[in-house]
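User: Predict the complex with zinc ion.
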Amino acid sequence: MEDVLILVRTAPVVCWSCGAETSIVSSIELSRNDTSAVCAVSDFTAYPQLIRPIEASLRSRIDIGALKSRYSGTLARSYVSNGCAHCDALFGQHFEIHARYDEQLASRFTAAGVEGWDAMLKDLLASEDGHLLTF
Ligand SMILES: [Zn+2]
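Assistant: Here is the predicted structure with zinc ion placed in the model:
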């Protein structure tokens, strides 16, 4: 099985809660051969084990908050999300979409498809809007 290439893009934002400057993962691109899909941190709610290698690839970036499941009072559910590096406040999808105007490639790595990346890429390509978690 071919490896999957993962591109992680991040962007600076000002925290809505504490006002500090922080950075969030604005988009994640999975590609293999001629196919690719761009998704969001929230899509990893379906594949929580795959967010760990993403975090590991950003280990040197202390300005990026933890990528983990947080409870959203607005949505009354928990999902894998970006958070403020200072106060851990949850950043929802609308922050990520706006932040994409300023995003930069932060890390890139390849992973074996068998680790679940293959299944996630297939699910993304099969989903109607390219996302696994709909709000
Ligand atoms: Zn904050």
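The radius of gyration is 14 Å.
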